[in-house]
Design a protein that fits this description.
It holds the Pfam family Ferrochelatase. By secondary structure, this protein is α/β, with parallel strands linked by helices. The protein is about 45% helix and about 15% strand. The chain has 13 helices and eight strands. The strands form two sheets. Strands 2-1-3-4 form a four-stranded parallel sheet, with helices on both faces. Strands 6-5-7-8 form a four-stranded parallel sheet, with helices on both faces. α5 links the parallel β3 and β4. α10 packs parallel to α12. The longest helix has 27 residues. The model has no long low-confidence stretch (mean pLDDT about 95). Bound molecules: ligand L6N33NVT and fe (ii) ion (2 copies).
Length: about 350
């Protein structure tokens, strides 16, 4: 049958997976950082103060002070491939594309900055994706991360005449595959060390404390991940503690604690001068892990009398991390696609 001249193009239906992470500036310079922070910190899922009160503080104070400081942090971790968060998320998408083969289109996007979620969803739709799995890469659910990533995707769908069917990746904080991947990465890292840490610190990104009483499961998810990881590592830790802490405090309100910087500074005084630190809540290394933990955390620990410090990288696009993500995504794609 001949199609009418104004018939839209017909494309082969496909299944797509969109990996989503937080977002990052286009460059490490203060101007790019300011643009990124303006978008990020204007998100009402992130800062839950009414805009009429928050925007003057953000525009009048924060965006005139923080970009310079943050830009210095970004400059220390920026690589030839750009922002580590973007480069690693891209590498994860490529590795999963290779792992899944042609049956599944794998793409990646950022909640803030580029590549934008809306642009990538449109590109996937144009490429024929009529079923899309949104995969915010946060093991622990948090309204400020998981929910806002999904919100942004659904806002794009709201403007589409022919929407794809959508699934979202649930949090995987207690998934066996995730805990096993973390365990294997810690085991390998500890084996390669030239010193014996007396403790393992698990540092999660912090959140305002009130989000816990408001019903966000983030704190509980972090605690459960830490407990399961400690149990899985029991033979290796052999009685050495896994200490949970929360990093990246922002603003004057009370945040989840204990704070990672305070924890690292206090350990030498308690006789713990050799530590390893891991950031299980980050699926990719970024300014918060590479600068705040690996550089600044070490400085703080050593200034307090610590002698040996090791930062254990995130799962990133390594073999264990990719097999874990492949297993999680494959499960969520059940009935849609059965990729290799
Ligand atoms: C992993 C989970 C994350 C939660 C929860 C989270 C909450 C949260 N963050 C801020 C403020 C900032 N975060 C910044 C960077 C940043 N945050 C996460 C992840 C979570 N944030 C990542 C992966 C990154 C790194 C981005 C990168 O480009 O590498 C920043 C910017 C850096 C800086 O200026 O320190 C800010 C600011 C708030 C307010 C918040 C919850 C309320
Ligand atoms: Fe953050
Ligand atoms: Fe809890």
């Amino acid at each position: 049958m001949e199609l009418p001249a104004d018939h839209p193009p017909i494309v082969r239906p496909r299944v797509g997976v969109l990996l989503i992470n937080l977002g990052t500036p286009d460059g490490p310079d203060p101007k790019s950082v300011k643009r990124y922070l303006a978008e990020f910190l204007s998100d009402r899922r992130v800062v839950e103060i009414p805009p009429i009160a928050w925007q003057p503080i953000l525009r009048g104070i924060i965006l005139n002070t923080r970009p310079k400081k943050s830009s210095e942090a970004y400059s220390q971790v920026w690589s030839d491939d750009g922002s580590p968060l973007a480069a690693i998320t891209k590498a994860q998408a490529l590795a999963l594309k290779n792992a899944f083969g042609p049956e599944v289109l794998v793409d990646w996007a950022m909640r803030y900055g580029k590549p934008a979620i809306g642009d990538r969803l449109q590109a996937m739709k144009d490429a024929g994706c009529d079923r899309i799995l949104l995969a915010p890469l946060y093991p622990q659910y948090c309204a400020a991360t998981t929910a806002t990533a999904n919100d942004k995707a659904f806002a794009k769908l709201a403007a589409m005449r022919w929407q794809p069917a959508i699934r979202t990746l649930p949090p995987y904080h207690d998934d066996r595959a995730y805990i096993d991947a973390l365990r294997a990465s810690v085991e390998a890292a500890l084996q390669a060390l030239e010193f014996e840490p007396q403790a393992l610190v698990a540092s999660f990104h912090g959140m305002p404390r009130r989000t816990l009483s408001l019903g966000d499961p983030y704190h509980c998810h972090c605690q459960k991940t830490a407990r399961l990881l400690e149990e899985a590592l029991a033979p290796v830790l052999a009685g050495r503690p896994l200490i949970t802490s929360f990093q990246s405090r922002f603003g004057p309100a009370e945040w989840l604690g204990p704070a990672t910087d305070d924890t690292l500074s206090a350990l030498p005084g308690k006789g713990v001068t050799r530590v390893a630190i891991i950031a299980p809540g980050f699926s990719a290394d970024c300014v918060e892990t590479l600068e705040e933990l690996s550089i600044r955390g070490r400085e703080e620990f050593e200034a307090a009398g610590g002698t040996d410090f090791a930062y254990i990288p995130c799962l990133n696009a390594g073999e264990e991390g990719i097999s874990m993500l492949k297993a999680l995504l494959q499960r969520e794609l059940a009935g849609w696609a059965c990729p290799a």
